[in-house]
Amino acid sequence: MEDAQPRLRGMKIDDSSTVRSGVSSESGNDFADSPHPPPLPRTPAPLAYVLIRWLFRFVLGVFYSTVVVEGAENIPEDGVPCMLTANHCNSLTDALLLVTTVPSSRRSFLRLTAKDTQFGRGTFTSWLIESAGTLPIKRPKDHKGEKVDNSVVFATLIRALEKGHMTVLFPEGMSRYWPQIAELKQGVSRIVADTLTRQKDNPKFELAIQTASITYLHRNLFRSDVLVTFHKPIYVSALTHPDLIAPSLPTTPSPTPSAHERAIRSLTATIGTSIRSGILDAPSWSVIRLANTARRLYAPLGTKLSLGDHVRLTQRFVDALMGKRAERTWDEIAGVQGGEAASGLKGAPAEKKRERETRPDVKRMLTEEVLKTPLVEKGKKDGLQAGYFAVASPPSSVKNGDGARTEDEADDEELERLRRDLKTYQDLLYLHGIKDDRIRNPRLLRRRTLLKRLLVRLVGSICLFTISIPGLCLWLPILWMAKREADKLVRKGPVFDTYDEIAQIKLTYGLLTGLAVLTLSSLLTFPFLPFLNLPFLLGLMWLTLRFLEDLFSSLRALLALARLLMLGKRQLVLLRSMRADLHSRVEQLAVERAGLPRDAGVFVRERERRWKRMGLGAVEGGLRKWLGFAAFFDPRRRRKKDWNEALKLFDQTEFQEDAPGRLLTVDGGVTGVVLMARNRDSKRQIVPSQRKEGKRYRLRRS
């Protein structure tokens, strides 16, 4: 079986075609003694492509608050034949993100593909796709289920690969709404196989498959965050992967797949595993919601996680809540890196374990390795048998001989209770309109503290709104037009068919409206600031956007403090006791199932302040205080406290698939019902105007 599967650099493949990421040692690496062939001559990018890349680098930087790029150094340099594959959940925005995040120093030009229905429509989006040199791909669903022929396009892609270009394909085949990645099509692997077949007589030809993971925390919300991770590429060639070469003679039909077919399936599985390792992949939105709640309890607000750690930590809780277990625990990894065997840790004194957990050198080494340790299906300790992304088995109902529950059954019931309690706790926070960090803070139990903070937030909000008024005159037409067109799109069809195109619509109409607003404003201000009006207007709009982020953050805190004041001390104490119980159970889940340490601080990556980087750490007095004040206006300063926030007064935690109504009962008689109602223009949340039963209800925008 091993001969029938491609030997992929940096990947381990077992006999059952289940793949997991790994780093091979030099002695076991098939490519350690064979350097890559020299790259082909660099191909200059067309002028239209360069303009589109610069334009949308600016547009995406405005729409999304932070676009974090990881692993850009893994991208093969220009001239190396390369196929870029990624997950697909945000329509045209995915392609634009890849175009703008792949450094031009690594690849000057990306050969894109898109569904053929996007071409020849006479719209701005159609012109944009055609100007970038995109190739049309036919899909059966767009042609009434009829058989389609993409042989001409695939031949063009193969010729581009032979010239050393980078081509882009999304192996899912279509953009999706749901959080779980779709089953990958074999088109990428077959193009790779056809390319190697054409180059089978060229021993120096080597093709790189660059996988990427795109994670949107809120793909359609203004000023949300995006993570783009480029993984280590997979190198294949006719010399090292002969089974990918198509047989010259037709094979006779057989009930078992041929070696060539098994190699294609194995390569597709490898690509899928690599892409999944960097995204949030869950069977439903409700699981994502529970995992976010568990992560907040484990690493509360103030734990300075990078966006990559935020995503990977959330995915650990997704897998743990679905019943999987880590192959190795924190103590086992610490024992290996600390020079002791894992078995020796079990018998070590408790003081010695705590001392090792607090060692900073061990923490730095463990952070990346722990997040890469696979979680496997219950009952299968070997990751090669279960696979990192296997679906968890349903709870077992087998009992032992005396009729008592087995240990596995008790664990499953405890996990189910934890999921139910996490959901109830998050529903209560959603009902009251507050966040977990407000419950965690004991100082907010005092009404004097609440009133003092309310006053500070109110004054700050008024000041921020006042200085934002001039720039708001420029932003309001843009925001109104983008929302208007997005609402029209949502009303056209079901959410699973339109939700993934909302960001594309907002980007397109926001860009066109912004250009119109800038043109009109430049003409009106030209007599007062000739030739300086355009830079002034751009600077004003950018500063206003930053002030709006501060304003919304202040308003969110103001509303939360007001609700805490109305909530009452008795209800707040009850929520605090519920949180304390859930916190201990989530810590146990993190240690026993997710393979994480009890202390979430090991994932903290402290960032030095700007004045320290400038060598002013020893400056005392007024200058140091002035630098702290000036940093408030630094455009690079992050305004949001949580990666999950966007430019909204209320965080989005509910999605379309969630139940339309749920009853919550707290402390006997204090109830609330969360209902989602749809109208023509917005989604509204029906919440009780007072927390007691029998009172009337009011509408509040969610």
UniProtKB/TrEMBL annotation:
Residues 1-39, 340-360 are annotated as: Disordered. Residues 82-217 form the Phospholipid/glycerol acyltransferase domain. The keyword Transmembrane applies. GO terms for biological process: phospholipid biosynthetic process. Residues 18-28 have a biased composition (Low complexity). Residues 1-17, 349-360 have a biased composition (Basic and acidic residues). This is RHTO0S20e01552g1_1. It comes from Rhodotorula toruloides (Yeast). The lineage of its organism: Eukaryota, Fungi, Dikarya, Basidiomycota, Pucciniomycotina.
